[in-house]
């Protein structure tokens, strides 16, 4: 069995290596890209044009290799998260199943069919995806501590800030969190809106069990979780005044997204809001190039199609109004233009069903 | 030991370098470096224990573990940047070019 301390040490080293990638390697790549553009007298505006300049930079090859392989090291292999939780499955699952067994805040559907796009790719390079193994929710929760490098230890910030921004526009009473995972995006609504009723749905049973257990441990009684497909979620028309999601839209094919948006519209009461946090706003072609590459390297095949979609037009065609799509800062007090390190192009996507 | 799940079909890994040998060798380097750090961490823990018992001096001199990890990552990957540490002849090494000048003596 892998010693606990060795697992911790190895994960700490992998995270530190990611730190180097996020700062020095990224900065160096940007510089060399800039220098090469200047030397060639070009100002690329499209991804293929950027690729023509950047792809044979040696530093880009290392940047790309490390992006893929540090994630492999994090999840797979003898110090990987998947292996660690498999080895500790007995103890960690006893706790989880115990909590799930007695909770009324969890509805699982063993007959729910997992869509083919979902089972075809191990998302985030998580072996078996977030759904196929009993420990998958715990693996995902552990992995998510370090997905947003800028935040370091305070990954929780992202979801809390997103919730706060939504609540600036009013306090909803009935909230649906689509693709809630292990509930990280759901919990801030439950704690900040004690008087509201909060529902979270996801395809992944192991994640939902963890979400329900986390909510119970946090003493939150206004939130419940159900195993449902966001493109066919059930619920009566006009059941919610807020439908939200975090890091979900880029995980589904466009034809599924189309159905999800129709469902959002159907589930909202007139005047209700739909707000998603995802990756879309990328005015700089080099950022876009790295983002498409990230999708490919991290097993997120629908990242590029979402980024290429004409989102304002798509939402308007569905009948949404008050469409707002703007960059979102994942931490407080950050001047996004001044950030030198690599970061995700977080985007706040908000619209309203006409009253 | 259990194996990771994508078994069944053998999928080939993504390739980033002109010669995939470099991709694979990088994997070896990363695995070795990780093992090195794991061992280093163990040694530090031992040192702290020994020093607490008065058997070796000065274990406190070791910075926090995170700083250790960051320092190793920095040392390990710095060469990837391809930046000179001391100024001199630069670029691809070759003695094929013979013409030397006052400004470019190399
Ligand atoms: C990146 S996670 C985000 C989880 C959570 N919102 C958070 O912020 O931590 C994406 C989630 O989408 C879920 N998912 C993917 N396709 C889905 C679908 N069609 N219906 C419901 N959930 C889906 C996955 O199971 C996964 O938990």
Write the layout of secondary structure elements.
The complex is a heterodimer of chains A (355) and B (106).
Chain A: H1 4-40, H2 47-54, H3 58-75, H4 81-87, H5 89-101, E1 106-107, H6 116-120, H7 136-143, H8 156-168, E2 174-178, H9 187-192, E3 197-202, H10 205-217, E4 223-227, E5 240-246, H11 254-267, E6 268-279, H12 285-297, H13 303-308, H14 311-317, E7 321-327, E8 346-352
Parallel strand pairs in A: 1-4, 2-3, 2-5, 3-4, 5-6
Antiparallel strand pairs in A: 6-8, 7-8
Helix pairs in contact in A: 1-3, 2-12, 5-10, 7-10
Chain B: H1 20-52, H2 65-77
Bound molecules: S-adenosylmethionine (SAM).
How would you describe this structure to a colleague?
The complex is a heterodimer of chains A (355) and B (106). By secondary structure, chain A is α/β, with parallel strands linked by helices. Chain A has a domain at 147-179 and 230-352: Rossmann fold (3-Layer(aba) Sandwich), CATH 3.40.50.150. Helices cover 47% and strands 14% of the residues of chain A. Chain A has 14 helices and eight strands. An eight-stranded mixed sheet of chain A has the order 1-4-3-2-5-6-8-7, sandwiched between helices. The termini of chain A are far apart. By secondary structure, chain B is an all-alpha fold. Chain B has a domain at 20-81. Chain B has two helices and no strands. Chain B is flat, with a radius of gyration of 22 Å. The termini of chain B are far apart. Classes of the chains: A alpha/beta (355), B mainly alpha (106). The A-B interface holds A 5-6, 9-10, 12-17, 19-21, 24-25, 28, 58-59, 61-62, 64-66, 68-70, 73, 76-80, 82-83, 86-87, 122, 127-128, 132-133, 296-297 and B 1-2, 4-6, 14, 16-17, 22-23, 26-27, 30-31, 33-34, 37-38, 40-42, 45, 65-66, 69-70, 72-74, 76-78, 80-83. The site of S-adenosylmethionine has 22 residues of chain A, from strand 3.
